[in-house]
Predict the 3D structure of the following.
Amino acid sequence: MGARSRSAAMQTERHDMGRLGIETRSSLSMHLSQYGDLPGIDQRRGKEPGSLIVEVEKSGLRGRGGGWFPTFRKLAAVVDSSSNMGRFDRSRHPVVIANAMEGEPASAKDAVLLASSPHLVFDGITAAAATIGATDAFLALHRGSKLLPILTKALDERQAARLDPLRISLVTPPARYVASEESALSHWVGDGVATPVYPDRPFQKGAAGRPTLVNNAETMAHLGLIARYGGDWFAEVGVPSAPGTTLVTVGGCVSDPGVVEVPTGTTVREILAMCGGTTDTVRGYLTGGYGGGWVPAAGFEDTPWDPDGTRAAGAVIGASVLFLVGESVCPLEEMARVVAWMAGESAGQCGPCVYGLPSISDDFHHLAMRHISDDEMQHMKVRLSLIQGRGGCKHPDGTARFIATGLSAFADEVALHLDRRCSLAITRQVVRPGNPGLLPVPTPRLALVDVDGRDFE
Amino acid sequence: MSAPSGRNDDEPVITLLLNPTICDGRGLCHDAAPHLIELDEWGYPILPGAKLTVDLPKSDVKAAEDATHACPVLALHIERRKQST
């Protein structure tokens, strides 16, 4: 089973299509004829979550935003913390946020999902909200997203049909990498400040201090399916440790890059075949996204695409990004552009991130440009370990992993660069953000953003 | 969570916690407790183990209290709790 997002030519038999309907753009009537009506969702009563939570537990669904945390446990945690709040505390009613920020520049799965099956995501939001007794529901898109008109129209259709007992609001936080981190997202929804919060987690104290469920848009879509067909149905495909299907964004040197839907555990080889195969000799794979990790090409094609399978291969499934870097580019130059961008995406709160990432980025730039000194190389390695585990969010940890795994996956290239050489005869003159390369990096924005992440408008 | 060895079972676990989003890197914690808290090259504190929380042996509790009281922005915090097992 598997599904592609684009090209009608690639559509095969009906039974061969994916669950999430990424092949076609669905209006509300098409959506309802394909999936049927959303059944009535059992509402939470007091400390007891709605009965859908039993199906979610049976399904084994794990969050598709990158953490792959069991969704059932997240739902239960929100219900628990809101039950344990003071009886007269006005702030105990939970909040639901669907995270469609898609902060990973190399990922496109949420955009493809929302453009094709917006109603499945909204169904999931409605189902989750009733199950945990939420009184406010949001879908968060990054500011300036092209999806806004599509989703506004979809919500209008739902309102006209009186589908959602709880009004779902579209919100547009700043398009910053760290703004899509779940505590930053609930901080923005509650207080208009898009910075990560430490140490409270959103399920304890999220938006405006209320227990908050933050789920990735794809996770919500899977909830929309589980609400209809049940947990046993959901777990019929995929690996037992992380069942179901998952969207994968495939990029780099493949014939037909894009988003595919596959059962978890599908091998990398099969995923690449769905994208028309490779167009270059692969040197390394970036897995999970820019907060993920690199793996060398050798033997990786047989890796099953699921959390355990990728971990065993030294990779990270993360936000389900699979990016192939071939021999036509210098991987260190590619990384240097990304690292510089990541350093600039710090929320500016924690010292090790504010000062550590730019200094590491400078050293890495020197490595990419083949004039790094031994001292600088040594400093960079020390700083990479120094910045980990010391921030309010995982941005420095993810960036450090991106760099450290890249240094080992491309060890031969690093050795050449230390020797003032490069495997490519011609390399680019300048490594800086905005320089068109293989790995996508958002172009610098002109919007003014102050230190708290608030936009001046 | 297992307690550091050599501690009596009914004594509370004392943990030093750092909130990095509040910390400004003033370095007064290091001045107050130089043996417990190191500073990185940018002047931000590194707790023993280089994580954001550390369970303290009894001998370090006084120093941790000094560091906590010295912090002008209240980024350090000491938590005492009964051992769970």
User: Anything to note?
Assistant: The interface with chain B takes residues 195-199, 349-352, 355-356, 386, 388-392 of chain A (CB under 8 Å). The CA atoms of residues 20 and 117 of chain A lie 7 Å apart. Chain A is about 40% helix and 10% strand. The radius of gyration of chain A is 22 Å.
